[in-house]
Amino acid sequence: MSAKTRSGKVIDLRKKKPGSSGTLSFNWGGSHASRPKPARQSPLRARRRRTRAIAGLGMFTILAMLAYGANWISYVPRFSIAAVEVEGAADIPPRLIEAYLEADLFDGAYAFLSRQNIFLYPRESLEESLMEQVPRIRSAKVSREGLLAQAVVVTVEEREPRGRWCDAGGCYYLDKDGFIFASAPLASDIGLYTFAGTLANSGSPIGQTFLPRYFPNMLEFLEKLKDAGYPPLDLSLEGEEDVSVMLDWGFEIRAPLRSDPDKLIRDLELVLASDTLRGKESRLEYIDLRFGNRVYYKFENSEAAKIE
Question: Is the pTM higher than 0.85?
Fold first, then answer.
């Protein structure tokens, strides 16, 4: 190699060009993953969103207007209850029933829909409340006579007294199911039996039921005694399973609660017709029918005996 050549400058192609990063990168037609293009929102999708929003707002507005209209119409005087009429009341003052019903209807509280509206008034609730507040009412029906009638008619059925339940605090009427519904005067009522015995609760007797499972059966027993010629005066509960019935003849009958009234009557007639007791009824203190085929009896001033 000549000296000229040796003294000349050598250009190194491997040197970096100005502005180069030091490595060569090649893009073979692909896009840079680090900088994706922003997705364009579909005009159709945006239009649907706006439509749904407008529809929802419109529906809410319509519902709000309907609710306001219903509220306003429910309080219109033309569609409000203006009078209360009572039918079927005998011992209950009609004005008392009217007062209870009006107090329940016009309770002073503001409701979204008026309770006094002739189409919206709570009929079943009023009936139940009336029977609860006035125990003498056995059933109550609230109705209106016409489509636009502004008077409600309360038809009641009162409980009929079938006896008196008494304790040291006084006497109370009870119906055919043993339900105690009202105070009774101390003077005896002709044709009513007197009952005595514990109740389920120690509070007020009114609203409670005497012998809830057995009272109809015992009432039937008393009626059959009367029909058979042994008029009963009163019935007392003895313990939890027995009763004692005082007869107009002057002696009492002891019997189980769970007994057939017809069988009791037959047993009583057989015993009184026996040689032991025939014609001696005035001396009897009691006859005990609680032990099946064994019947016990007791005369005054003597020991108890039995008939088998």
Answer: no
